[in-house]
Structure formats: structure tokens, C-alpha cells
Amino acid sequence: MRAYLRFELRRLVRDPRLLFFSVIGPVVTYVIFSGWSAGDRLEGLAAPVAVMIGLAGYGAVAGVLMVGSAVSQERASGWLHQLRVTPLPAREVVAVKAFLGSLTAIPPVIAVGAAAAVQHHIDLPYGRWAALVLLMWIGTVPFALLGLAIGYGLSPQIATSVTFLVFLTLSVLGGLLAPATYFPGWLRGLAHALPTYRYAELGWRSAAGQLPGGAELAVLGAWTAGFAVVAAWAYRRSTARR
Amino acid sequence: MAIRVTGVSKRFGVVRAVDRLDLSVDRGCVMALLGPNGAGKTTAISMMLGLAPPDTGTVLLYEGSPVDAVRAGRVGAMLQDGAFVPGATVRDVVELARALYPRPLDTDRVLSVAGLTGLAGRRLDKLSGGEAQRARFAFALAGGPELLVLDEPSAAMDVAARQAFWTAVRSYAADGNTVLFSTHQLHEADEHADRIVVLAAGRVVADGTPAQVRVKAGVREGISLDQAFLALTDPSTPTGTEQ
């Protein structure tokens, strides 16, 4: 399993598209737009901090979904079939994929955090930075499962567009790009039910020095369970086909 | 016994891909599975590798289930649709296979046997068709499996690569390992296999050494195996359906 993880990590590092979408995209967005709302208070934080966490989450979710749904290509190309005739158990392939996907959450959080620290002189205690990175990493579990559900459930041509659509919908409506505070009331209600908003909330609360709240854990837990069921179903269906 | 297939059938809808197949392969044998398109070669191989369960009958590898043999690292396979993923190099996949199997071969030996020594650092998505096929062979071989299964292994290789490939296969079998390959290339089966099994419509229509297969088809020694093959697999001739 370690050998396969090493193999996949090497591939990930060599893929520049991922870096572009998950790191460069959110950093550039932050640098350009974070000044606009700089005087406001959002999600109980100074706006530059709240926007930083929103965009870090945006990059993290992009990376995690991309890695998961890329399974679709590996399935279609026959690579997963090839792995099945080696001693590597199929469940370890899935575990490595999920873990790897979640790891891609870390670079965008660090990169956007660095941009925010430089541009707006954001000054959080080290402990809060550490809690922020840790929670923004662990909080990607539902998105890793969603990515795998797409990757195992759909053909490559469809998977790419579905990933993009799902990602855009979840991140925009979840208030990762434009803060949900500016949404009309009904839309804000919807945002609060989405995993993206609750995922960012883990970050917002840790930046404010608070522990995760019951509401976001409940909402994230429910989405995690739902995506896990779909991912398991898609996985079983994909292996039963041939 | 390396492979023992008993009464195995598999249908896809109305198509009977494999029809009551019986087949035993001894250890150390190089066996060719020959047959026209749709004869059931790939389906038979899938079942031998535990990728697809048979509808009826049993498949045993080394007297256990195919899944157990695969899990124990006794089987290496080069599948027809087993493409690689982009972003990895030739060396990456060889090292991956070596790490997954209990008794791997030496990396340099694998690379040289597969004719990839100068290409170790090349990314798999930058390989030509023939090179990619050699890389897939390297992946199947690197773990040092007792049973090497090759589904149409040499289709995209040029003449020189093909010759080097078959030399490697023969020397691997000479070490006591078993090799099963499927092919359309009759002369390859003729030159490189100890035993040829001809499939047509999911059944064995001939089984033996190249010479025995010629006799069975009623063609003289010295006549190319192509004639024998056509005679055996033509559904309109009586030899094509063995009861």
C-alpha cells in the first residue's frame, strides 16, 4: 500500500493542472478581490481572514474533487483492471485514492494563507494556523467521497463536466467565492445546508479560536454519510460490470 | 498443475462467449491460445485471472482460486485493455510492480529484458505503441510471477522488439515458470509455444503441439499453420465443431 501511495504521489506532483486550479486560481482570486470587502466583518471575522478561508476551501475542494473524479479515466483506460491482477487489494486502491485526494487540500490552504498574511498582514497565533490547516484537511472527507462517487460512477467524458458543475454549484452557493453574508436570506438558508459552507465554517471557527460547532458537524456528517453510500454503490457497480 | 479449467461457461446476453471449456496447463509450459476474433480468448483469460466469475464450472490456479493466486503474487498479467495512467514513468511502474510482489526480479534485468533500458525515465504517455506494450510486459514480469498471462502481447511491436520479446518469454519459461499467451499471429504460436489450444466459438477445437494441430486439421507438415487454423475454426467444416 505504501508503494502504491508513493507511486500516486509522484504522479500527483507531476500534474501541473491540479496546481493551477487548486493553488494558483484561489491565490490570484484572493489577491485581486480580497481588498473590496476589507472593512467588513464576515462570519465573525475580519473580512480578509474570512475570504482567505473561503478561497482556501475553494481551492481545496477543487483539488479533492479532481483527484477523485480522475479515477474515471483510470477505470476507462484499464489501469484499475491491470491493478486488480496484482496482489494489491482493491480496497487499498480506494483508500489511497481517498487519502491522496484529501492531501491536495493542504497546498491551497497554505498558499492562500501565505498570500493573506503578506497582503493583509493577517496575524493569527500559530496554534490557530495549525488548527486551520488540520481542520481544512480533515473536513475534505465528504468531497473525497463525492469525487470517488463521480469517478467510479461515470464515464470520463461525463465525469469531467459533472465534476466542474458540482464544484461550481457547491462552491458558489456555499459562499466560498462570494461570502454568504451578502446573499439574500433564502439563499443564505440554502448555503447553510451545503457541505461547502459548513466545511469553510470549520475554518472560520478555528480562526476565531472556537471549537467546531454542532451544526456544522451534523451537516458535514450527513453529507459524508450520503456521499459514502453513493461512492460505495458506484464502486460496486463498476467492479461488477466485467 | 498451473491452470485447471473444468466445464467453464460464460455468456453475455445471448452470446455464448465460452462454452464448457476444459483445459489444463502444466507448470513450465508455454501455451498459446489461438482463435479468431470473438472465439472467447479474452473472456477465458479474464476468468483465469479471477476478473470475471464463470457462469458454471471452476477455474483453479495452483489448485486454489484465481483470486487467491493473484493475491499471493503468483500471477502477472498483461491485459489487452490494460493501459497505463499518465504522469508516471517506466521506472515508476516497474518499481510499483516490484514492491507489490513477494519475489520481484531485479529492476535492471526487467528493463533490459523488456528492451526499456534507455527509456526508464520516460513518461508512459510519451511512449510509442510498441514501447508502451513493452512497458506493460515489464509491469507483468517485474514481480517475478510463476504464471505469466499475456493477452495479445506483441501486436504493436516492430520486428526487432518482437524477437527480443519472445526470447525473453522463452527464457522466463525455461526458469520453470508458466506462460500463457493469446495471439492472432499463427507463426508466433507455431514458433514459440510448446502447446497450442485453438478456440472457436468458445470451445477447444484443437489442442497439442504445433505438429499435432496440423494433423488434427488434416494439413501436411510444412504447410503453414494458417491453413490448419482456417480449417479448424471455420464453422461450416465438420472439424470446427468437436462434440
CATH architecture of chain B: 3-Layer(aba) Sandwich
Distance between the termini of chain B: 25 Å
Give helix % range of chain A.
over 70%
- Could you describe the largest sheet of chain B, including whether it forms a barrel? 6 strands, mixed
Major sheet attributes of chain A: 2 strands, antiparallel
- Range of strand content of chain B: 15-25%
Strand order of the largest sheet of chain B: 5-6-7-3-8-9
- Helix-residue proportion of chain B: 25-40%
Query: Judging from the principal axes of the Cα atoms, what is the shape of chain B?
Result: globular
Structural class of chain A: mainly alpha
What are the low-pLDDT stretches of chain A, counting only 5+ consecutive residues below 50?
none
Give the structure's gist in a few sentences:
The complex is a heterodimer of chains A (about 240) and B (about 240). Helices cover about 80% and strands about 0% of the residues of chain A.
Description:
Chain A is built from 13 helices and two strands. With 242 residues, chain A is mostly helical. Chain A has one domain. A two-stranded antiparallel sheet of chain A has the order 1-2. In chain A, helix 3 (47-69) packs parallel to helix 9 (141-153). Chain B has helices at 41-48, 66-71, 90-100, 107-113, 129-142, 159-174, 186-192, 210-217, 225-233, and strands at residues 3-12, 15-25, 30-34, 56-61, 75-78, 147-151, 178-183, 195-200, 203-208. In chain B, the strands form two sheets. Chain B has a six-stranded mixed β-sheet with strand order 5-6-7-3-8-9, with helices on both faces. The model of chain B is unreliable at 239-243 (pLDDT under 50). The chains are: A mainly alpha (242), B alpha/beta (243). Chain A binds chain B through residues 2-4, 7, 10-12, 14-15, 73-74, 77-79, 81-82, 84-89, 242, and chain B through 46, 49-52, 70-73, 75-77, 79, 81-88, 92-93, 95-97, 99-102, 123, 136, 139, 143, 149.
